Amino acid sequence: MTSLKRRTFIKGFGLAMGLPLLDAMAPAARALAAPAGTTHPVRMGFVFFPNGAIMQSWTPEKVGVDFQLSDTLSPLADFKSDLNVISGLAQDNGRAKGDGPGDHARCASTFLTGAHPYKTSGADISVGVSVDQAAAMKIGDLTRLPSLELGINRGRNAGNCDSGYSCAYSSNISWKTKTTPMAKEINPRLAFERLFGDGRDAEASRQQRNLYRKSILDLVAQDADRLRKQLGQTDRRKLDEYFESLRALEVRIERAEKSASLQPPELNLPEGVPQDLGKHIRLMMDIIVVAFQSDATRISSFMLGNAGDNRPYRMVDVNEGHHSLSHHQNKAEKMDQIRRVDKYLATHFAYLLKKMKETPEGEGSLLDNSMLLYGSGLGDANRHDHHNLPVVLAGGGGGTIRTGRHIKTSSETPLNNLFLSMLDRVGADVESVGDSKGRFTEIDL
Asked: Measured between alpha carbons, how far is 262 from 224 in angstroms, rounded to an integer?
């Protein structure tokens, strides 16, 4: 059987497509730089939701392995053994510290940076390097894309969005430097093509594909056929399954674009962005799976909404804006609506976990070789709490994380301690993140 490099690509017009892990790559995959104690590269993803949660309904009652998922997290039931619910973590630099109101802007800007944003609505923004970009600086050269930043709402990087804080703070969780946010992609097709463009005259390549409306798979068909002839039966089946999943994703993107084009023009929404929120979220999550599966990148972030997002969730009978409801003043009717939003968003995280767990890799799954953190930079948004944050960490981290528990850590433990432990597992040697005080050893085996 032919032996292939782990970073083998099949190429076509303006394209370089990464491949899933095949048996023919096994020797090279083992030799590829991977964190100590792991046999495959470990991926790291962050999924952010705005406006905190109803923490009484989020937090499991019992601690340890003998816990039951709360009602809010019940959509994750099939993956209970693959995750840890972690209570007690804080982002101290999300607090005002003399800057007054603006907790929603600080919620997003501190979530992955652990740094206090400089309060300004001008161009002199400053916060800190986010954990995903700290990893990208260390291991980003091992993949074609150092990192992948996705979102649902475009947002702005100028102007005042929250009590004197620049919109850049509300619109971004990923920061390359303390003054440079990483722009997120909200268009599924552009995100998909970003994964497979080879960087050479990318705009011309995109225009050519649009002209002929060819599938990306059509454009690499000749190289794919050549590769198939070198592979054994098992690898050919894996390759065919991978291509089928990619084509299905392309079809869904095409349908979403057609649906978007039928919307009333006064909505003034970006071309190709699905109007159905659930479809939009799932498309972006599928893109994360493909990005990790093909080793196009090992680092991703995804914003389910900008900080202070005021979207209604009519699909779960919530017609008032999310942000407005989060200031519920302990009114039962408003709290019940927020619970429905919290649970609805959790169903989409469950979708991502399902896709990851159903994607085989080596002797396990893509989820086994990943870490996915789902959470918010606010706990109880009604009180603008920046402690006891809602956090779920899913995935085995390449067999280095003990899962299946509700971990209750001491109050005010920095979320950034957990980030340091995650960085260790992707092979990024970083000494500190934000106000970290050490590693979060509670997840260790």
From this structure: 36
